[in-house]
Amino acid sequence: MFKILSRSPSSIRHATRRIMQAPHRQLSSSKQNLGFSRNQSTSALMVEDNEYSLPLVRSGTDQESNEIINSIKYNSALPSVVYLYDDFGSDLFELITKTEDYYPTRTEASILENNATEMARFDDETDGDTRNFNHSIIELGAGSGKKLPPLLDALAKIPKGATAKCTYIPTDYSSSALEENVNVYHKGRENVEPFCGTHNEAFAKLSVRSGRKTWAYFGNTLGNEDDPVPFLKTLAAHCGPQDRVFLGIDLATNDGKPVEVINRAYNDSEGVTSRFILNSLSVVNRIAGLDFKEDNFKLHSKYNHKNHAVEMFAECIKPCLVTADNGMEPVRNFKKGDRLFVEKSGKFTDSKIKSMLRDSGFVQNRNWTDERGFYSVLEVVPNVPKKRQKAARHGNNNWHYQGIVRVGIMNDASGNGVYDLVGNSWEWTSTVFNGFVGFSPMHEYPGYSAIFLMGNILY
Fold first, then answer.
1. What percent of the residues of the chain are helix, what percent strand, and what percent coil, each to the nearest 5?
2. How far apart are CA 459 and CA 428, in angstroms?
């Protein structure tokens, strides 16, 4: 057994070496004894060399299993990057971020640390003003959340009214990553509300929170998408007109960023990235009942200049047949040199950023970049006219403009105890109304119910 007790580079290299030297698992869909745990007091990664197996994260539905099998069989690809991030994969990725050549995490963290005070304020706020609204900072795919403390510390220093509150909501698919987030990097911090689930589940649950929201999508995670626009469109649909989004963007090769820098980041000498990519084979084994063996594959990772992306494959190193249902269903007969696509990490040019934001309904508001020009953190906002953003604070009564009023100012309570029951009134609202799962507009009033209850705002 070993522990990572120190976060120094030398200790990380030593611990990583032990992981790489541990016996490869014989991957199957059967449950085995757990050889992986987390020491809460030290956040140490602990692995039993003689029982190097993983928990059964979840069993896939028939639909999901078929999707995985068909994607491997017909597309030579895994259908989603989600299969990289079981609990073990999340821990491997944390090790990747500590390797010497992996620049994105350190560079992004330095941008947040150096600009935290400026980033904490919305651009329509004035330094020194008291904040009188609730603010939720929602970090999508937060993992350990280790980059957020400087920003959250800066937010905590902003003067707030008696009823105003700032809440940090880390979201992630991995419960172990969220445990580390809450118990290590944000231990003792007030108003932390972790959310375990998918992005779509987070959108549905968290977009209805009161006040203004900062959605954060760091780590160049957008680069994992074949086309980031559909995801960003969904995010835009769940943003109120006074919300904002932080996006971590890894920039494409340029005069100051040679391709060697990018390639080294995804081919670390310790082999952590290799183990991370091949772990996805273990995950699909458990979900779809397959029998991949890691020993039959290696990592192939290289920057594609045409696509501005690092493309990562599991490459077959000796012929093997992958089957399902305990060998009863042949899935794919791999020959030496055949590749199974697992993940890509797209890099962004200026023109790509502009078109991506335009097509998804966002506009860039502010931008922070490191001194080398490797990486950017963008602040983007919904493409809403400023007058409509301000209109969210105003109402109308009997076709006349009316400012905000407190409850009870217009009339006394009715006989049923209801205040301010006045007809022919309407207001602009910054709230986005989202229908429940399965909602569809009423056919009698498709325009009205669709506009207000499908994540959109009427202007």
1. 35, 25, 45
2. 8
